[in-house]
Amino acid sequence: MAAKPKLYYFDGRGRMEPIRWLLAAAGVEFEEEFLETSKDLEKLRNDGSLMFQQVPMVEIDGMKLVQCRAILNYIAAKYNLYGKDTKERALIDMYIEGVADLNEMYLFWSISPPNEQAAKMTQMKDKIANCYLPAFEKVLKSHGQDYVVGNRLSRADIHLVELLYTVDELDPSLLANFPLLKALKTRISNLPTVKKFLQPGSPRKPPLDEKNLAKVKEIFQLK
Amino acid sequence: MSAVGAAECLSLLPCSVDYHAWDGTRAKGFQSLLTGHNQRLSYHQMSVENPGDCIMAGKPRLHYFNARGLMESIRWLLAAAGVEFEEEFIDTPEDFEKLKNDGSLIFQQVPMVEIDGMKLVQSRAILNYIAAKHNLYGKDIKERALIDMYIEGVADLNAKFRLLPVTPPDEKDAKITLIKESTTNRYLPAFEKVLKSHGQDYLVGNRLSRADIHLVELLYLVEELDPNLLANFPLLKALKARISNLPTVKKFLQPGSPRKPPVDEKILEKARKILKV
Question: DSSP letter string over A73-117?
Answer without folding.
Answer: HHHHHHTT-S-SSHHHHHHHHHHHHHHHHHHHHHHHHHTS-HHHH
